[in-house]
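user: Please review this fold.
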Amino acid sequence: MNTAPNRTFSDPSVFFLSGIPGLESSHGWISILFCSVFATSLLGNSTLLYVIKADESLHKPMFFFLSMLASIDLSLSLTTMPKTLSIFWFRAREISLTACLVQMFLLHTFSIVESAVLLAMAFDRYVAICHPLRYTTILTNSLVAKIGLVALVRAVALMLPLPFLLRRLPYCRSHVIAHCYCEHMALVRLACAHTWFNNIYGIVVALFVVILDLTFIGISYTKILRTVLSLASKEEQLKAFSTCISHLCAILVFYTPVVLSSVIHRFGHRVAPYIHILLANFYLLFPPMMNPIIYGVKTKQIRDRALLLFHRKSF
């Protein structure tokens, strides 16, 4: 029995997450997939953090940035998946407005921080390949910490207005959020007031972050490509560029779902609503699962150290 409509009007501060509208009968099967990916993400990122922390030879800028990426992926997964799985398994759809706004704030903040960390990793590759002799003097531990702090401050500053903008809106229509988690535009659609400022602010922030970060990533790799192509032998070129493969894969894994979701959201008017929601979940599930696999397989230092550490533990 669904009590959401009755509770909606009796308590205006309570909302209900619907899960994936149109696929309610498949929630059980979808939950198995989501839970498997979630568990893989937790295991992979936790292992990555443990290996980097346990081995002092990995205490270098590249791996510090990788630790940041793993921490953000863990945070993103833990921000959304427990509630999503509780909807699928226990029909625990209810969420307070405050909890909803906190989840939305954390979700978007961590996403912006991840984009900044990917940019920082591009800068790391640029310095390593274009200025190898100055690598240790440029990318000091102090600078790495400052880059991480700036990434966090930028994300918080950009997202902090959103909860206040959404809290002031009246929600006199349905309080059922057609999603698995609280997302900015999903909440805006429920408001019965002018939301033009919320819409414009959300678009401006998204464009600012994506365009700025991708532009600087592009500049970094343009300079890297010029340096690599100037090397004498093909072997040297391949060796230099191979150090960037993992990062390029991580960029594709992070930004491809963002671009796909944005294109379908704006131009795919005939696309079923559940496709949008599945893509949104794919964006949150896929990168946290893939990043440890990408770096574990492609980065020799991580692979070798992980095997060595776990071999020691087994004896």
Observations:
- The beta strands are 14-17, 94-96, 176-177.
- The CA atoms of residues 23 and 274 lie 7 Å apart.
- Confidence is low (pLDDT under 50) at residues 1-9.
